[in-house]
Amino acid sequence: MYYAKVFYDLEKMKRLIFILLLFGLNLPGFAQKITISGTITEEGTGEHLIGANIYDKISQKGTVANQFGFYSYTTNSDSLDLFFSFVGFQTQHIRLKAGKDTVINVSLMPDGNLQEVVVSASEMDQIQEVSRMSSINVPIKQIKELPALMGEVDVFKVLQLLPGVQSGTEGGSGLYVRGGGPDQNLILLDGVPVYNASHLFGFFSIFNADAINNVELIKGGFPSRYGGRLSSVIDVSMKEGNMQEFKGEGSIGLIASKVTVEGPIKKDQTSFIFSARRTYLDLLARPIIKAATSGNENVGYYFYDLNGKINHVVNDKNRLYLSVYSGDDKVYSRYKDFYVYDNERTDYDEEFGLRWGNFITALRWNNVINSRLFSNHTFTHSRYKFDLFSNYEEKITGAGVNETNIYSERYFSGIRDWAVKSDFDYIPNPDHYIRFGTNVIFHKFSPGVYASKSSEAENDLRLGADELNSVEYALYAEDDINLSPRLKANLGLHYSGFLTEDQHYNSLQPRIAARYLVNSSTSLKASFVTMTQFIHLLTNAGLGLPTDLWVPATPTIGPQEAMQVALGGVRNFKGFEITLEAYYKTMNGLIEYKDGATYLNLDEDWQDKVAVGEGRSYGAEFLIQRKVGKISGWLGYTLSNTERRFDEVNFGKWFPYKYDRRHDVSFALTHEWKDNKDFSLAWVYGTGNAVSLPTQRYEGLEISRYGGFSRPNVEYYESRNNFRNRDYHRLDLSFSWWKTKRWGERKWTLGIYNVYNRMNPFFMDLGSDNQGNRKVMQYSLFPVIPSFSYSFKF
Predict the structure, then answer these.
(1) CA dist., res. 694 & res. 716, Å (int)
(2) Looking at the structure, do residues 118 and 237 belong to the same domain, yes or no?
(3) pLDDT band at residue 172, thresholds of 50, 70 and 90?
(4) What is the Cα–Cα distance from 289 to 287, expressed in whole angstroms?
């Protein structure tokens, strides 16, 4: 029966999309004469410039390039005065008379200092012009220049410096956006969701900046083409590979090294890019550990990333992409030894390990159907797995004895996806930019399984939940529409559904964002969105081992839902973008472990170990940003409040979310003070995180089942998260200088993390002083840390 309902809902959504498209097609002015279309790329590499701007000075209208550099501009006039621009590139100016539809492919030259182009209303790329709000794009150049922990450039560490984004713990790469959890971030790598984006127990992200072309963070006002998460979208696009010549770059750092090579397989037709990164702490430490243990023990940790992509131009209207990512973390310990007793020799080999990682692949087909309609079809497969294992092997040899005993334990979990989606961009005229599409994802969940084998046991032991199969689907339509010269809006609908265990959930989510242009440099913006998330992340409270379990909505545990409304204003003033926003967000269907429950309670169903509740978050954010020039960077401030409530936690009362911060300040600056030298700094301040500490302690009474009794100490918690850590603040500095060689360029970077050695809290606990008095103890992680790296380009 529910399958019939699915088809009914799909037909209903199709009718809504058809009405929206019909509305766009029949507005006055649709019947245009001439369409100018093509792609916008970077000169010398062929990389598509995502979001490049096209402006016609005669009509004072324009358009933007999509994610693949494609643009389409339709006009009544046969005379055009076009400006093609992109932040950090020289503007190109083309005048022409066109009597028919014309294809113009444009290549823009990089330019660190934008040349001024005197066009009074051509600033289409400026923030006050777009209808979308709560969206920030950080140039890759800025990301690479800012100070980095241990010299390792990290995209997520830079995003944490933006207003509305919290870092979680000291040094961590987790993102907590506007009161949401890490599972509520839709992290996309070339359009494919990433389920765990962390290395080194959360201290670094999986994204290698050398392989990235574009990074966009959306905190609210979500366009209808995005769905499946509540709090944010982090859309990361890989480079496509140089179509003109072979290039390479790499670096050698304190804890990791990386290298990237790209170039044409066939010039102007097929290109590739390959990037690899690996830590080598295990390789450096291995000889020391072996020497200290007489060669019996081997302990280590490493992570690696591999990115690859092939870009093939079939013809002027068709292009194929194949992209792959593979990355793993592994912690391992192995000990081998022997002993002799009573003429028998026993050799034993013990191994313990922890491994987690992602594998992602995507096959993409771009098709320019006509000068106004562009399509992108994607087929993807992704896998995230977590594996905790322990193996023991014992060999006993001697007079008449030859025996081998083997024992192994393993705990594993993960999620595997197969997906297909189709997206269409339709630009009937400069007043409409219509997007519509659909996608289907087949999920296979492994929510946590324990397995053991023993040569002495007759049967293997297996505990935990069975694999779960689910289907998630969505349809969407949106129109970026100019309602008047001053009023622009993005109107859309996102319909999604989820089938699991004979249960069908569905959701229709309206999305509205609008801007009113007060004058040429200032606008007011507003947005209203609803979001639905059909998957949950069970996070074990503690220091952050990657034991997170992804589970689907079930007939018992429903999906998560959110509503967010935002108001704001933006101003572009002498190269500075100034943004002020206020937001209010509610969330329902949130889950977390009940008190005392963990992922290790394998004899219980996970659904019996969680509480379901709600959350709310509200605040104001201020950002002043400069993206280009000798001096660039931003200053951000966030005032916010985030709370959660669960019937079975904290007596059903509201309590502060663990990562709630009342005040958060960030200042980031890069200064190229000579042609071959630059300096950067980052300073952050934040109110301390909320933690739970007992307020009273008393003696209890415990009766043993064998008789007798004891009086254990019992600690009383007045409320959840009733205590605040000390305020957090830190200053990082970085200094770089480079030199051009015959073979390319080499660059040295020196950095200092936590310059004034602020001992920030990593976590708090109760302890005792030398006199035995109970007191709150702070544990810190990172003191002042110097770093260096050597990088090169060829």
Answers:
(1) 5
(2) no
(3) low
(4) 6
Q: What domain count does the chain have? A: 2
User: pLDDT tens across 255-265, in order?
Assistant: 889 999 999 99
In terms of residue numbers, what domain contains 115?
A: 32-122
CB 793 within 8 Å of CB 247: yes
For the residues 465-481, what does the mean pLDDT come to? 91
> What backbone torsions phi and psi does residue 371 show, to the nearest 5 degrees?
-65, -15
Q: What is the pLDDT of residue 447?
A: 79
**What is the distance between the alpha carbons of residues 500 and 93, in angstroms, rounded to a whole number?**
54
Count of positions (residues) in the chain: 794
Cα dihedral across residues 640, 641, 644, 649: positive or negative: positive
Statement to judge: residues 369 and 413 lie in one domain: yes
Residue located via tokens 């659909």 = 438
**All residues at 6 or more sequence positions from 200 whose CB lies less than 8 Å from its CB, including other chains:** 279, 301, 303, 329
Per-residue pLDDT for 92 more than 60? yes
In the chain, the N- to C-terminal Cα span, in Å, equals 62
Contact 74, 54 (CB under 8 A): no
> Is the pLDDT score of 140 beyond 50?
yes
559 in Cβ contact with 544 (< 8 Å): no
Q: Which residue, of 122, 148, 181, is where some domain finishes?
A: 122
Domain contains 27: no
Sign of CA dihedral 70, 72, 73, 78: positive
* 409, pLDDT greater than 70: yes
Enumerate residues 6+ apart whose C-beta is below 8 A from 662.
Answer: 639, 640, 641, 687
Using alpha carbons, select from 752, 165, 27 the residue that is nearest to residue 156: 165
273-282, 540-549, 603-612: lowest mean pLDDT where? Answer: 540-549
Q: Is residue 10 scored above 70 in pLDDT?
A: no
Report how far apart, in Å, the C-alpha atoms of 740 and of each of 44, 258, 634, 792 are. Answer: 18, 20, 29, 10
Of 71, 95, 122, the residue at which a domain comes to its end is 122
Contacts of residue 263, Cβ cutoff 8 Å, sequence gap at least 6: 241, 242, 245, 246, 247, 271, 272
CATH classification of the domain holding 106? 2.60.40.1120
- How far apart CA 669 and CA 719 sit, in angstroms, is 41
Whether residue 272 contacts residue 260, with contact meaning beta carbons closer than 8 Å, is answered with: no
